[in-house]
TrEMBL record:
The keyword RNA-binding does not apply. Binds 1 divalent metal cation per subunit. This is 2-C-methyl-D-erythritol 2,4-cyclodiphosphate synthase. InterPro entries: MECDP_synthase, MECDP_synthase_CS, MECDP_synthase_sf. Pfam families: YgbB.
Length: 163
């Protein structure tokens, strides 16, 4: 198979005593996301899409939250590891499309920096990464500012064998 596709979804709770890190960018906000790692919800969704596309399970299976070595870790480090797992299966990232569901803060000023960080971790050029954001029009847990959700789709392509 030359191509495979994966999807990922994640949610983290917004709490007062944490930094808000999205796509590897620290964003000034009164609350941050709670988690064992840096709780970078969009990177987690991308990791799950990478792993799912390759038939490699999910992020919690590879990086359990019971493991102290992952406490506070940058999720971009976990994503770079996912890239190596894909390589071992003979795949590389084709493109990444992700969506952040957040009533606040405004994500658009940070999208470019997020795309650059994700591209670096995936080992692809930045034109292969797209990050979108949407409010939920005040509805649901994201709309009430209780948490942030993220969804991602990742295309995987077969690595070209060098002759
Ligand atoms: N946290 C967010 C949410 C949305 N945006 C940008 O606003 C535009 C409109 O969003 P809707 O809620 O009406 O879908 C859209 O272009 C989003 O990129 C944002 O920057 N931060
Ligand atoms: C990333 C990991 C690992 O530190 O922890 P969290 O930051 O809590 O994130 P989550 O999306 O709940 O699950 C994956 C985890 O095992």
């Amino acid at each position: 198979m030359n191509f495979r596709i994966g999807s990922g979804y994640d949610v983290h709770q917004l709490v007062s005593d944490r930094k808000l890190i999205l796509g590897g960018v620290t964003i000034s906000h009164e609350k941050g996301l709670k988690g064992h790692s840096d709780a970078d919800v969009i990177v987690h969704a991308v990791c799950d899409a990478m792993l799912g596309g390759a038939g490699l399970g999910d992020i919690g299976e590879h990086f359990p939250d019971s493991d102290p070595s992952f406490k506070g870790i940058s999720s971009l480090v976990l994503m770079a590891h996912c890239r190596h797992l894909l390589q071992e299966k003979g795949y590389e990232v084709g493109n990444i499309d992700g969506t952040v569901f957040a009533q606040a803060p405004r994500i658009s000023p940070y999208k470019k920096a997020m795309e650059e960080n994700l591209a670096r971790a995936a080992g692809v050029s930045v034109d292969r990464v797209n990050i979108k954001a949407t409010t939920t029009e005040g509805l649901g847990f994201e709309g009430r500012g209780e948490g942030i959700g993220a969804h991602a789709v990742v295309l995987l392509q077969k690595l070209v064998q060098e002759s």
